[in-house]
Amino acid sequence: MAGSLKELSELSGYSMNTVSRALRDEDDVKPETKAAIRNLAQQMGYTPNRVAKSLRLGKTNTIGVVSADSANPFFAEVIIGIEDAARSRNHHMLLVNTEEDPARELEAIEVLLGRQVDGLLLIPVCGERNNSEYLKTLSIPFELIGRWLPGLEEHSVLTDEYEKANEITSLFAKNGHRDILHLSGPTFVSGSLDRLRGYRDALEEAGIPFRDNLVVMTDGHAEDGYHKTYEAIQSELNFTAIFSFNDLVAVGALRALKECGYRVPKDVEVIGFDDLDYSRFLHLSLSSVRIPKQQLGRVAFEELYEHMRDKSKTYGRRTLESRIMFRETTLFD
Amino acid sequence: MAGSLKELSELSGYSMNTVSRALRDEDDVKPETKAAIRNLAQQMGYTPNRVAKSLRLGKTNTIGVVSADSANPFFAEVIIGIEDAARSRNHHMLLVNTEEDPARELEAIEVLLGRQVDGLLLIPVCGERNNSEYLKTLSIPFELIGRWLPGLEEHSVLTDEYEKANEITSLFAKNGHRDILHLSGPTFVSGSLDRLRGYRDALEEAGIPFRDNLVVMTDGHAEDGYHKTYEAIQSELNFTAIFSFNDLVAVGALRALKECGYRVPKDVEVIGFDDLDYSRFLHLSLSSVRIPKQQLGRVAFEELYEHMRDKSKTYGRRTLESRIMFRETTLFD
DNA sequence: ATGAAAGCGCTAACAC
DNA sequence: GTGTTAGCGCTTTCAT
User: Fold this and answer.
1) Strand A180-184 to strand A241-244: parallel, antiparallel, or no bridges (unpaired)?
2) CATH number, domain B60-159+293-322
3) For B288-314, what is each residue's pLDDT tens digit?
């Protein structure tokens, strides 16, 4: 396997330079020479060493992807989109997970820089101890996906979460609901805030007083959705509709409702967010907001790619549109 | 940012060699020298260039991960496990997706080799047109995860799928079921075969004749599970139990059963496979086989790591144990 | 159309 | 303890 230009040079009788140019199909090499060299290369199964190339060129054709939560099916889809776009641009992806830990995120970025990635795509850790200040000092291009960081809004590719949260809540209100439980996401995720704001503003617009205890924070997973809903019911918190931070939490909530004898959507209407693949096939197909997950990844990469090609390009926020899917857990359509 | 040893050398007055050794904390450098150099490095925010290091050392501390289906929550978990183990060994991961396409897989491996990865972890495409012959010619270590390839069994880290499939089917049989529908996985996934064999052998052991039409192939996703189950019911295929290839398919099946008026588990018992996170929280918590997904990834990496350290080490198959979780979609326990 | 030589940033072998 | 030198495999001037 492998081999090197030097080896090819010795075997072919041509200089390393000519061999290099021939293999890269430059056009100032005589066709016959080119053919001979390429033949030889093929024969000995030569594979160019991209590490050497990267060192020489000061460019690795590699991006770093720093994900806060890649077990989440939502981000798994986003990452597929990134990979897809990267591949079509001849780039690769070093993937690092942070488990929502800012220290790990910082470390990840540093080590990726050492590895000379050409750009960075992050699903960043939000909340108090975020790395926005550090990110601002970076000398390579970077984009944030599905989340935003104060002062770095222009670096984000987002969706219309506020608008959809607002719309959902407004619809509930129009349908006569006054006690709408919001199973919110963790505060360290910026989307939680956007969705909460949408909820809150919609209530205000509908003239319904906002009530603290109708917002119950979850960690964004099914298990917590289940427990928090269960507890809410036990504590005799009355509600007739649930706007859930995401589908996972909604699945847990549906389970708790069922165990407590509530019928969906008759007694309680439920809507999720994200629209995961299987949500449509649940016992009650789940109403949700369809976010273009793969596209989020693709757009983020393309945006990053632009900045890698033109370092002077200015950043601008991108917002993709999502769509509310009305299914069996809600009554309206 | 960045800088280089040369720069540090000039600024500090020491030779590049000394600088290099100081930064790597070798012990034949005078403590004061070391301190001075490290200080300076810190000051100017020096980050060692790992690309240059890789070239020099002929070692990248990077593994290639070739996944056939990383949108699948099952493999998403596996990949978390890989990443976790890799990180603790100071390795990184180039992730490439193949979408079950052997041509893409081949291309992925080739380009990863060009990138000088030290080892390869694959969730390989199985079936007719697989790349097992090519894999055999590889000069770097590799491991297959959760799937096997003929002639490369020793390179796999697997779970006891056959045994659990057998056990499940036997339990159904003991419970009096004679018409057990198996929603099988696609033939291009080796696990489909193992699970099917387990089903088949169990029937034989129980003296129940195997019937072709009780095995319905799916693509492993919820949507197909739904459609295939729906069709099976419409075609008046009688069955009183379903052994599903995985949880996703089972979710689809549960939906179809509900739409057709069957009650689970009274009319039809259902069991899945894999035990995804949210399966416990479905309307009916799903009985399933809990596969240690992250551990699968971790063990595979450790196995690979051993081989990267000692190229002469012989390969041996690893089989991890899974566990059947009895929940509400089945009657036995 | 082809070749010679330099250099990307690093580490290792060998000297002193 | 520290310095000198060579070289990993590649591309890029600059000659010829």
Assistant:
1) parallel
2) 3.40.50.2300
3) 999 999 999 999 999 999 999 999 999
